Amino acid sequence: MRAWLLAPGDPSRWKVASDVLGSRGLDVVAEASGDCPGVLITRACGRLPGMIAELSDNGRVRVVVVVVGEPVADPWELLGAGASDVLPWSTNGVETMHTVAARIQRWFQVDRLARAGPVTSRMVGRSPAWMSALRWLVEVARYSDASVLVAGESGTGKELAARLIHALDPQRAKGKFVVVDCTTIMESLSGPELFGHERGAFTGAHIARRGAFGEADGGVLFLDEIGELPPSLQPELLRVLQERAFKAIGSQKWERTDFRLVCATNQDLSALERAGRFRRDLLFRLSAATVRLPSLRERIDDIPLLARHFLRQLVADPTPGLDPAVERFLLSRAYPGNVRELRQLVTQIAIRHVGGPLITAGMLPDEERVAELCPAPRTEGLAESVRQALEDGLDLRTLKSTVADLAVSTALTATGGNVIQAAKRLGVTARAVQLRRAGEQTR
Ligand SMILES: Nc1ncnc2c1ncn2[C@@H]1O[C@H](COP(=O)(O)OP(=O)(O)OP(=O)(O)O)[C@@H](O)[C@H]1O
């Protein structure tokens, strides 16, 4: 376990810190490196956010910042710049450095699980956006018992993530994983799916049934589409979470239950809360830890990897490879349905494969092939914007430059800030992207 340690202009603190880290089994190097986590010990100053952004490669490398002297006024600024944690240097630093060492050791454990665990390997991906979500997921699942809110667009793998939390939770893995889709819960019957019911509790209740709260005892209760939970059931859920007990419908008896709650949503729950459609106290309770799964747009590097993974599942040995043209095609598509949509597309392609070592362009579904052969750029919206801009008096030069700025910033957002990928998408050099971005920032 290697970690770098910097304490600019402060050799005595560097020595104390390196002794503690060394005593905890960390191999300390005195030069920053992108290959391992690091520690920066420094006084707070205006240049600190910039330094952190550089050392952490904008959050890709984990860096603990230990601040000497006055506490930093705004630790959020440092976290925003990419620091993984910000701690004050205690009187002699020893205590602080033990905390730092424990944190770094935890990261190594998390990384090992995220990279190579038999459970995590079900979730495919290696892009920075994906790895950072996965690491956080593993950390939350393994080292806490908190309720987790998994947020992300449709098809990004939220249910898979919830199953991963169950499998990685040392306390709950042996218990059940109980799924309830909140869109199917009926308000009028006060949620028999959740509470269960006694025989004869309502018309049609011919036999007693156990509900999800009882079934999930000792395991994980996964509430999918939590934003759709009927308002009348929201205080009831909160009560069960607080009291860890519930009554089945038609029963007078309290039943104890102890489950871990994992919820998923593709909606903005804070917006629902502001609109009065979701209880604030419940929202706080559910989102003790929030894991946001990236869309496929934010992890396009993972597309070939995912496509091969699905092909392996669908076509038995020998699994065909992807012709470069097919790979290019897969990379060029938009996937509003995210990983699920990619999976469906690969399934359609696999059906057309009748043998041979490669998936070729001819195996793409017909409409996909047509789109590939005669790409028809969608320009209706663009034409309207250009008309509007000309009406507003913009000349061609300004218009061209504005469109180029927009294209670069959109491509950068879509690739999670990856200049090389953005350049590939735009068909220009990485330097051109950097220059335009720098131009934008100085304007
Ligand atoms: N990282 C991944 N690796 C492998 N398969 C994945 C990954 N993410 C998603 N999938 C697959 O994509 C499909 C959709 O995943 P899942 O149902 O978990 O998404 P979701 O976000 O819960 O969707 P929805 O919002 O529509 O409920 C599933 O077949 C799942 O196995």
Automatic annotation (TrEMBL):
Domain Sigma-54 factor interaction: start-end pairs: 123-351
Domain of life the protein comes from: Bacteria
One Pfam family of this chain: Sigma54_activat
SUPFAM superfamilies assigned: P-loop containing nucleoside triphosphate hydrolases
Keywords of the record: ATP-binding, Nucleotide-binding
Record-linked CDD domains: AAA
Protein name: Transcriptional regulator with GAF, ATPase, and Fis domain
Organism listed in the record: Kibdelosporangium banguiense
